[in-house]
Amino acid sequence: MAATASPGAGGMDAKPRTSPKSVKFLFGGLAGLSAGLLRQATYTTTRLGIYTVLFERLTGADGTPPGFLLKALIGMTAGATGAFVGTPAEVALIRMTADGRLPPDQRRGYKNVFNALIRIAREEGVPTLWRGCIPTMARAVVVNAAQLASYSQSKQFLLDSGYFSDNILCHFCASMISGLVTTAASMPVDIVKTRIQNMRMIDGKPEYKNGLDVLVKVVRYEGFFSLWKGFTPYYARLGPHTVLTFIFLEQMNKAYKRLFLSG
User: Solcar repeats: which residues (predicted)?
Assistant: First the structure.
């Protein structure tokens, strides 16, 4: 005797069920949103603000911009300072996004980034907020020296060519070049950071001694160009980010000068 299917057993009237894994992914992905926003508000505004101020201070009285090496040094300074200021928010971000993957009895259950920062300082001490600060600053030094200096240099080159004026098209082209340079410079640093974070213990010893050892072993066993494996998707992510960052920065700088410095 054939069994009769009930309306809710898979027929047209059945309500679509949402997978618990989908719900966990959606809400888990939003768990660190406040921390991610705070990190951008601290790290990005600090590095861009310091770079802009130092760049203007070191520009000659006749309008001559600083040389490339000085631009790179300004970028390093801005990047290191921004990374230091943004580290607490990054620590909170890492913990909040990882919380959902922990067993229920080990979850910290931070409500938002401010709750996370207060609890970390209270329960583990204020210095914990800057845990991992040194490698974060080292990466920021490389990335910002490449990104900020290459953008300024590219923009200067495009303006000097006579084919561009100081407008959004020029900013777009300069930032795309900057994204390309930044990708090439930062990928080896990211490989070192990732390998060290995920390294195994072999016969009771760590797989790598330090960052230089990672680079030597990767080049020796995987080839020199493996340092830039995945270049295209990396640039596809970093390129638009760099374009939006510098276009908004240029427009806000122009608005600030027009509204507050023109008088």
Answer: 66-157, 166-255
